[in-house]
Amino acid sequence: MTAASVSMLTPEIAAAAARGWRLLPVQAHGKKPLVVGWPKTATNSPERLEAWTAQFPGCNWGMATGSGSGVFVLDVDGEPGISALHAFYERGRRLPDTLSVSTGRGTHHYFRWPVGKSISNSARKLAEGLDIRGRGGYVVIPPSVHSNGTQYAFLHPNMPIADAPEWLLQKIADSKVPVSPPMGEKLGTLFQGNRNESLFRYGCAMRRRGASLRELESGLLQVNARRCCPPLPDADVLQIAASAAKYPMGGQDPLETAWGTVPREAHMRRYKQFLELVRSLQFARRGLPIALPLERIGTLMGCDWTQVRRWRQKAVAEGFLEHIEKYVPHKLADTFIFVECPTKDVPLSRARTGLVVQLKDEFNKEVVWL
Q1: How confident is the model over 81-116, as pLDDT tens digits?
Q2: What DSSP string runs through 224-255?
């Protein structure tokens, strides 16, 4: 590397690359990766870093955590994180002196990657405000600038990176991820069983807004790292992005499309319109659970979301809907199967299979369930 090329990198980025950290450019004053497939393309190659510097002038920089960089990070986020850390201190569980970064909201504490162990990303598993960035994750590094205008800075630039204390490694190992969220869990976390479907829905929504394949990959990898517990393998996320990219850009939201097929006769009860809307959604996703967001449906139908909730509860009570699971609780969008009012001759379990069955609905129309 020539002297001229060295001068293209800031001292902090040049030093980070010299440490062997795998780096990636991220959005200026933000955290969004600017390169496709960053878990694989992150690098400490000075030549590649120079090219990115020229391609993305003024960008922030991230470091891919994990065995490749030899580092994992404890993120102490805001007052909740500081309080949680103090609670550990009061029980005699202290952090060793180690390389640390002051962020826009708290502190990043760097630790050497433990040989023979796997550290995954997690959010609030240790305590409220304490996150872990490990395999498949990344952190923003100095001299990046936070969205609030604060510059990331090493507290003691020459401080070596320490081994994580045993109590921290044990705490990480003990905090196993549940298959479903426990009572009181923060809203918006995607657990095993709905990660793929949720990421695909998110990707399709991005695609409708005009996202390119590169933007889909970047966006879904971020959501996977920050919301999925545990995160999916990067290869799976990239495959989901590729599937979402097959859909045309733009187009209506599925709810809007379904609402466009609902009759609007003046004499038609609003509850029947709701059932027709649900039927249209289900026929577009045969055999798969559908999300019924109360607020979105209320906006489309011109009524308050509490009225939609009553209709949804009535449809469950009358056997039109089977409740499957919580989907996006903070958006009031549980998932359901529209079962066309099962009868004794056609049990619910059979109505949900791929068999062809004929059912009578309340409108006296014969429906074929494929």
Answers
A1: 888 888 899 888 999 999 999 998 889 999 999 988
A2: HHHHEESPPPHHHHHHHHHHHHTSPSS---HH
Residue 185 domain flag: no
Report residue 80 as tokens. 């909740």
Residue 162 shares a structural domain with residue 234: no
User: Residue 195 corresponds to which tokens in the numbers above?
Assistant: 């990660």
SS3 label, residue 13: helix
Query: Domain check: are 95 and 218 in the same one?
Result: no
CB < 8 Å & 24+ apart, contacts of 162-166: 162/96, 162/97, 162/98, 162/99, 162/111, 162/112, 163/96, 163/111, 163/112, 163/114, 164/72, 164/111, 164/112, 164/114, 165/93, 165/94, 165/95, 165/96
**pLDDT the model gives residue 352:** 38
Give the range of the structural domain holding residue 55, as residue numbers without chain letter.
3-174
Write down the pTM of the prediction: 0.51
Residue 42 inside a domain? The answer is: yes
